[in-house]
Amino acid sequence: MRHPDTNDWVHAGFSCGLFTNKRHETLFAFCLYGVEFVINVGGPSIMGYQEWLQDHNDISPVVERLGCLLVTEGEGRSQTHYLHGSFDALKGIEFDRLNGYHL
Questions:
Q1: Rounded Cα–Cα distance for residues 11 and 6 (Å)
Q2: Rounded to the nearest 5°, which phi and psi values hold at 65?
């Protein structure tokens, strides 16, 4: 992603956020060096997370939902992936409100 002050590309190691689904479950998602993990904080099932992904065309709850976009440049083994945008919890709250979810 780009550094907010210098605009240089930097390696982003961690991001996280809370979100809810139509089952009224609260989920905690975190991304560690590009791998996304989700924990249902109120129960043992992740079926609600799988439904959330289907309902939202497989967007990431800690990338696109918070206002960022994954961009791929190059081809084959020379591909490079970048996150464009700013992670903004308020955008996630607005996304949830517009989609009928509330924390």
A1: 14
A2: -60, -30
Within 8 A by CB and 6+ apart from 77, the residues are: none
Q: Is residue 72 part of a domain?
A: yes
Quote the number of domains for the chain: 1
In a domain, 2, yes or no: no
Residues 6+ positions from 85 with CB-CB distance below 8 Å: 67, 68, 69
Residue 8: inside a domain: no
Euclidean distance between CA atoms 54 and 61, whole angstroms: 12
List per-residue pLDDT tens for the chain, 103 residues long: 666 678 776 666 677 888 888 888 999 998 877 788 999 998 899 999 999 999 999 988 888 888 888 888 888 888 877 777 777 888 888 888 888 776 5
Please check whether residue 31 lies inside any domain of the structure: yes
